[in-house]
Amino acid sequence: MKKLAISFAVGAASLLSVGTAVMVPTTAQAQPAVIVQTPPPPPRSEHVPPPRRGYVWAPGHYEWHRGRHVWVAGNWVRARPGYAYRAPEWRERDGRWEYNRGRWDRDHDGVPNRYDRRPDNPNRS
Questions:
Q1: Cα–chain-centroid distance for residue 22?
Q2: Is 18 helix (H, G, I), strand (E, B) or coil?
Q3: How many beta carbons lie within 10 A of that of residue 47, not counting itself?
Q4: How far is residue 82's CA from residue 80's CA, in Å, rounded to a whole number?
Q5: Alpha-carbon separation of residue 11 from 17, 65, 111 (angstroms)
Q6: Are 61 and 85 in contact (CB under 8 A)?
Q7: Alpha carbon of residue 117 to chain centroid
Q8: How far is residue 49's CA from residue 76's CA, in Å, rounded to a whole number?
Q9: What mean pLDDT, rounded, does the chain reach?
Q10: Which among 40, 44, 109, 119 could disulfide-bond with 62, CB atoms 3.0 to 4.6 Å apart, if both were Cys?
């Protein structure tokens, strides 16, 4: 009987630990694509403050919130050595507008590394 109770306790603990590991969200999860029919308004004019050491300026842009375009003001983002910052952008594709979030690109080719067949290629300019 004691062996059965110990086996049951070990099994329950292992199930709980597996369930917890699977359900914990991570911050690196991919964001869903935003595709809308309405083009964004023209970008607003904004004052860019003087450069800050160790930071990159992320320009203001429109994001899609609750069925409409909402302006997000520019801000400073901590620089990542070896990476180039790509600002968020809207692109028209087949009559629809697709939003691409701001991202960091390691090999400076403009292609996110997850889509790049040869990421971090040192021979690219």
A1: 21
A2: helix
A3: 5
A4: 6
A5: 10, 45, 46
A6: no
A7: 19
A8: 9
A9: 77
A10: 40
Token reading at 45: 């004019």
Dist CA 115 CA 72 (whole Å): 27
- Residues 21-39 as b or e (16 or more Cβ within 10 Å = b): eeeeeeeeeeeeeeeeeee
26 pLDDT more than 90: no
Question: Collapsing DSSP states into helix, strand and coil, what is residue 89?
Answer: strand
The alpha carbons of the chain give a radius of gyration, in whole angstroms, of 22
Q: For residue 46, how many C-alpha atoms fall within 13 Å in the half-sphere facing its CB?
A: 17
* 21 token code pair: 């590991």
Instruction: For tokens 């302006």, name the residue.
Output: 71
Strand partners of residue 99: 34, 90
Give pTM, 2 decimals. Answer: 0.61
Alpha carbon distance 110, 125 (integer Å): 11
